[in-house]
Amino acid sequence: MRTQVGIIGAGPAGLFLSHLLKAQGIESVILEARSRPYVEGRVRAGVLEPGTIETLGRLGLDARMRREGLVDEGLDMRFRGRTIHLDLPGLTGKSVMIYGQQEVVKDLIAARVEAGDPLVFEAQVTRIEGIETDRPRIHYTEGGTDKVLECDFVAGCDGYHGAGRATMPQDILQVFEQVYDFAWLGVLARARPMPDMTYTNSDRGFALCSRRSMQVSRLYLQVPADTDPNSWSDDRFWDELHARMFDEGRTEIEEGEIFQRDLAKLRAFVAAPMQHGRLFLAGDAVHIVPPAGAKGLNMAVADVRVLSRALTEFYRTGSRAELEGYSTLCVERAWRVVRFSSTLTGLLHKFGHHTPMQRNLQLAELEYIAGSRNAQASIAEQYVMLNYLPDYP
Ligand SMILES: Cc1cc2nc3c(=O)[nH]c(=O)nc-3n(C[C@H](O)[C@H](O)[C@H](O)COP(=O)(O)OP(=O)(O)OC[C@H]3O[C@@H](n4cnc5c(N)ncnc54)[C@H](O)[C@@H]3O)c2cc1C
């Protein structure tokens, strides 16, 4: 098999890239290790920033999101029983959309399959060779048979454990990582959600109430990193959530059947450069952020918007200028996003090593934000706009 751009991974990065390239008449083949039901059923992110929303619109793939997604105009932070309300449109002129990552993935897969464009499931990439030549080759296994995809460029959109980053010459790759000793226990519950995304910093730890639909709540509790999600009974989960959200009367948060639970470990990770020869990496393959900023999916989409414009320039004019600048541009943005997500994590979570001094500084920061429109505007701007990139598709 031969194509122009060989894409490894059918997560948000790989799928968006394939559609962005197709819109410019550039061929690609996606190789995905997992099955279609597995990829479509993976519950992960749920907040779409304006840059991601507008890209879906330009691709003509936003119909279901517009119908079923929920516009989110507020971000609330609680502490000491009080609420700081960030009015996103009032502070930034923009809002975000609540629409599950698995729904975006389903829409993008359906459009690609319907158009008859190649997307091979259960195709495990084992090796990439020739990235320093004009004819890189992706080796993969499909149905027990070894196969090869020849291409002009390889896009490693294959997540943290993928083959893309492992192919980078290790002597040029710099890795920066911070692993937290706590995690998020996340559940989906059939219960009417709170109207705004609501974070809380309580003496008992962090919690978050967000939405997936008008009938489904997505709820999180900070827990130790080695927690078994099934060790928490439903009653224990609800008791702890009410307590951390200062909902002592249990009147505010509606309870319902918990039908899905998972544990997300928290880490900040950046690998750079994001390219070498004809190999370009995007998304979780090269950066992971703690989830407080709701940024992982949006960062992945922003990367491939930059990459698709650079590849378009190459195929139209032969110029490599944008391709050569890809990593520099994306890594710089990645650091800004990591900084925001890490700051929000530091502001809202309970840290085992915190002294009373540090705890009071954390609360003083929240008091400052509560009283300063400028501080609120800064948080809102970063929450909504860090991956906006108005000059990209
Ligand atoms: C449990 C969890 C919860 C999360 N919650 C949030 C959240 O609330 N908000 C937020 O913004 N972000 C969240 N994230 C992060 C967000 O989901 C990711 O940032 C996003 O999925 C990145 O997209 P991606 O396309 O780069 O990688 P992925 O979605 O990981 O896709 C990579 C794809 O590559 C495939 N692949 C890997 N190796 C190979 C191989 N060798 N051959 C072929 N295919 C391969 C994988 O199967 C996968 O489908 C969460 C992540 C996790 C794990």
From TrEMBL:
Pfam family name, one: FAD_binding_3
SUPFAM superfamilies reported in the protein's UniProt record: FAD-linked reductases, C-terminal domain, FAD/NAD(P)-binding domain
Entry keyword annotation includes Flavoprotein: yes
Domain FAD-binding stretches: 2-341
Organism superkingdom: Bacteria
Entry keywords, A to Z: FAD, Flavoprotein
UniProt cross-references to NCBIfam families, sorted A to Z: PRK08243.1
Protein name, per record: 4-hydroxybenzoate 3-monooxygenase
